[in-house]
Inverse folding.
């Protein structure tokens, strides 16, 4: 008999790393934690906590000694040593969330998924950090909302055309993908994460009318092409090969823009982004702060590690947001060596809370 802990949660918020990119995590409200002997089938069946089975980090090679109650709605098998899928999972008709993150699962091990009709109502499938070379066949899941195959060895997005058009969040970061394709049917997609791949071109995004977050950091992209996206709120193109920031002009709903570690020489194409709150253009080749005079909502401005020579003109450049700006980074620019550098910035920004690494109460 193996003794496990069941944790019952309610509420579920999925979150992303930009950078390139972001890390996937669950933020949950813990309601109850009850110890249950899994091999006692009747007890597990009657216990309401059996709706969630969390076996994270048990280093299991298989589930032979684990009872799988038919009432399960969430099964978390993160950080084990599984290389095959227990066929009993295919009978969990109430299952909504299945996480196989950080195991030893290769393509062949997922073949049974395509015939597990009892799981057709699954909403979240996490296969992050395994040994996959291809997008698995998940056609059977016709209500899928979240699909995560990040941190694998996937070289192509071919196979995404079989994923349900109900999808809201798609994570394929840290793979070997070279082309954006087979995503045109995702009309309800809110989050697309393709950071840390081998993408050179932004393409085939025009049908993603409801996309709100686009994460493309750590690729090889040279030119911005958002294909007419209007609802986008967060964009990351950090660590690419951009030399210009033109291309965001129509993104009037944009709130966060991350462009650090590129080769951008001029701040431009920003004047229409009136909803922008966070702008990160650090580690580029900028010499002037410009084209943000209209941005009244700007709160965070990251300009560190550029070639900005003087603080002269900064007050005029941020005139519309000087009251709202709470964080500014200018370190590792020539202007940061100005006498009374911090005092000058605190005078310009009356509500500043942080200058570089210095936090003010």
């Amino acid at each position: 008999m193996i003794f496990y802990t069941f944790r019952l949660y309610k509420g579920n918020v999925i979150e992303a790393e930009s950078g390139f990119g972001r890390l996937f995590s669950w933020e949950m409200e813990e309601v109850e934690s009850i110890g249950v002997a899994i091999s006692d089938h009747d007890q597990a069946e009657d216990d309401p906590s059996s709706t969630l089975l969390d076996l994270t980090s048990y280093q299991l090679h298989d589930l032979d000694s684990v009872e799988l109650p038919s009432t399960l709605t969430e099964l978390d098998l993160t950080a084990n040593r599984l290389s095959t899928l227990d066929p009993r999972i295919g009978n969990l008709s109430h299952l909504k969330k299945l996480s196989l993150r950080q195991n030893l699962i290769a393509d062949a091990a997922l073949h049974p998924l395509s015939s597990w009709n009892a799981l057709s109502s699954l909403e979240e499938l996490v296969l992050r950090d395994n040994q996959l070379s291809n997008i698995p066949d998940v056609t059977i899941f016709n209500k899928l909302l979240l699909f995560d195959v990040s941190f694998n060895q996937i070289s192509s997005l071919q196979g995404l055309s079989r994923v349900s058009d109900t999808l809201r969040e798609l994570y394929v970061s840290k793979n070997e993908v070279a082309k954006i394709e087979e995503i045109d049917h995702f009309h309800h997609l809110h989050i697309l994460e393709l950071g840390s791949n081998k993408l050179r071109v932004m393409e085939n995004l025009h049908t993603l009318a409801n996309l709100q977050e686009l994460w493309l950091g750590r690729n090889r992209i040279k030119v911005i092409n958002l294909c007419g996206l209007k609802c986008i709120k967060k964009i990351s193109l950090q660590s690419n090969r951009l030399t210009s920031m033109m291309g965001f002009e129509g993104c009037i709903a944009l709130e966060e823009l991350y462009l650090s570690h590129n080769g951008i020489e001029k701040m431009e194409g920003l004047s229409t982004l009136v909803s922008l709150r966070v702008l990160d253009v650090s580690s580029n080749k900028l010499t002037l702060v410009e084209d943000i005079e209209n941005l009244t909502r700007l709160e965070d401005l990251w300009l560190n590690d550029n070639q900005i020579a003087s603080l002269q003109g900064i007050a005029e450049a941020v005139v519309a947001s000087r009251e709202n700006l709470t964080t500014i980074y200018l370190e590792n620019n020539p202007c940061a060596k100005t006498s009374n550098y911090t005092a000058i910035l605190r005078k310009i920004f009356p509500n500043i809370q942080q200058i570089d690494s210095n936090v003010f109460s």
Remarks:
- The chain has a mean pLDDT of 88.
- The domain at 265-361 is CATH 3.80.10.10 (Leucine-rich repeat, LRR (right-handed beta-alpha superhelix)).
- The longest helix spans residues 341-348.
